[in-house]
Amino acid sequence: MSIVEPTLRPPPAVRRLADIEIVIPVYNEELALGPSVERLRAYLDAEVPYPTVITVADNASTDRTWQVATRLAATLEGVRAVHLDEKGRGRALRAVWSASRADVVAYMDVDLSTDLDALLPLVAPLVSGHSDLAIGTRLAPTAHVVRGAKRELISRSYNLLVRTALHNRFSDAQCGFKAMSRRAADRLLPLVLDNEWFFDTELLVLAERHGLRIHEVPVDWVDDPDSRVAIASTAMGDVKGIVRLLRSFAAGKGRATDDRPTGRIDAAELARFAGVGVVSTVVYALLFVLLRPSLGVLAANVTALAACTAGNTAAHGRITFGAEQPVGLRVQLAGSAVLFVTTAVLTTAALALALAVGGTAVWPEVVAIVAGTALAALVRFAVLKAWIFRSRTSSARTVRGQN
After folding, report:
1. Which string of DSSP letters, residue by residue, matches 78-146?
2. Cα–Cα distance between 308 and 325 in angstroms, integer?
3. What is the pLDDT of residue 258?
4. Cα 49 from Cα 54, distance rounded (Å)
5. What is the pLDDT of residue 308?
6. Closest residue by Cα to residue 274 from 377, 386, 387
7. Contacts from 240-244 at CB under 8 Å and sequence distance 24+?
8. Nearest residue to 242 (alpha-carbon basis) of 322, 159, 323
9. What's the distance, CA 141 to chain centroid?
10. How far apart are the C-alpha atoms of 387 and 398, rounded to whole Å?
């Protein structure tokens, strides 16, 4: 990998490391590269109040792109060039972002399709620490997009496919306008396997799975009619990427190493757990009362409990622990079975005691199953936190900004 470092005109005593590094991945863009980098550099100098550097990442171009990139690095302050021997936008972003010392790393397409006025709203939440990642979205109601019907249909169809298959909450996976904090990059980049166009989607899906906060910025976008993206091969690669992620998640893979203390219990988590537990217990008790006349006490208890266990686990995953799905399907089934058996044993024992003391009255039985459920809650919390939803205790949030 060849690197041409940026020209820095100020003397060494006043030089500062860049707070933001913006990568422009290119392949055979000798005509567009020069004007785009010059325009971006001028905008950064005039409008962005943070030290910045532009890195042109040449993806094994076969034309004069590398020569243009080295000229820009030699003549423009705050521009550097990197040459990779292999193609792949994801490969280029991974190489530059992994080596960067900037607090925030970003990228944009060489055609500068996104209005540059969206750049500050993109990076500001990352510089301030408000968010972990930031993405431009062309699908927000306040975005303004100029592109043909074919590309509009492809974009919306792809994002619908991703959301349906992977249950993500971000709106636009492939907009070529993204940024993330250094800390988020260090956590996520080792996990992203794709080196091509699916890199963006995989990065964002993994970010959500790890509870990182994603800030969305509606953008003004004018599509480049000279785009070099091969739609058919890119679409096939994206589908393969989605299938690979689904298999990985089902096997419990794709989780970053969390540097937060493990096993820590906080008050907010306990409050959410209690809230879900109260609602679940009310539903469980009502089902028990409704089923009791036709099924009998013990059968009604087991049936009502079975009906509530899966929903309770899913609700804790969504609300208490902020998870999209448990560690894996087999773990979910095994954990749910343990919770069901534990609660069934405790509530059945409590019902047996109530029947011995209260005869055929309903209210002692309801008190008994509530008491049994409360005792089982201790086991439930431990199993959910330490087993089913381990390392998944931060809520993934997507925050939409205004452009």
Report:
1. TEEEEEESS--HHHHHHHHHHH--SSEEEEE-TT--B-GGGHHHHHHHHHTTS-SEEEEESSSTT-EEE
2. 18
3. 42
4. 15
5. 85
6. 377
7. 240/198, 241/194, 241/198, 241/201, 241/202, 242/161, 242/162, 242/165, 242/166, 242/198, 242/201, 244/193
8. 159
9. 21
10. 26
CB atoms within 10 A of CB 77: 12
d(CA 227, CA 239): 21
* Residue of 58, 200, 220, 238 marked active site: 200
The structure tokens listed for 268 are 């907010």
Q: Please give the Cα distance from 403 to 400 (Å, whole number).
A: 10
DSSP output for 308-367: HHHHHHHHIIIIIS--SS-S-HHHHHHHHHHHHHHHHHHHHHHHHHHHHHHTT-HHHHHH
Phi/psi at 143 (5° precision): -75, 150
What is d(CA 60, CA 62) in angstroms, rounded to the nearest whole number? 6
Long-range contacts made by residues 295-300, C-beta under 8 angstroms, separation at least 24?
297/351, 297/355, 297/365, 298/348, 298/351
Structure tokens belonging to residue 221 = 């976008």
List CB contacts of 134: < 8 A, sequence separation 6 or more: 122, 123, 125, 126, 178, 179, 180, 214, 215, 216, 217
**What is the C-alpha separation between 136 and 114, in angstroms, rounded?**
8
CB 393 within 8 A of CB 321: yes
Does the pTM surpass 0.70? The reply is no
Q: Name the token pair of 357.
A: 């003391």
Instruction: Report the chain (403 residues): mean pLDDT per 10 consecutive residues.
Output: 53 51 96 96 96 95 96 96 94 96 95 95 94 95 88 86 88 93 95 94 94 95 70 80 88 55 56 81 88 90 86 71 52 71 86 77 84 80 62 46 56
Cα-based distances in Å from 105 to 49, 87, 186, 371 = 16, 20, 11, 53
User: Could you confirm whether 115 is annotated as catalytic?
Assistant: no
Question: Which residue bears the tokens 């070529």?
Answer: 176
Cβ count near 294 (within 10 Å)? 9
327 phi and psi angles, rounded to 5 deg: -55, -40
What is the per-residue pLDDT for 391?
A: 45
Domains in the chain, please, with CATH?
2-259 (3.90.550.10), 267-388 (no CATH)
Around 20, how many Cα atoms within 13 Å sit in the side-chain half-sphere?
Answer: 24
Question: Of 82, 25, 22, nearest to 51 (Cα)?
Answer: 22
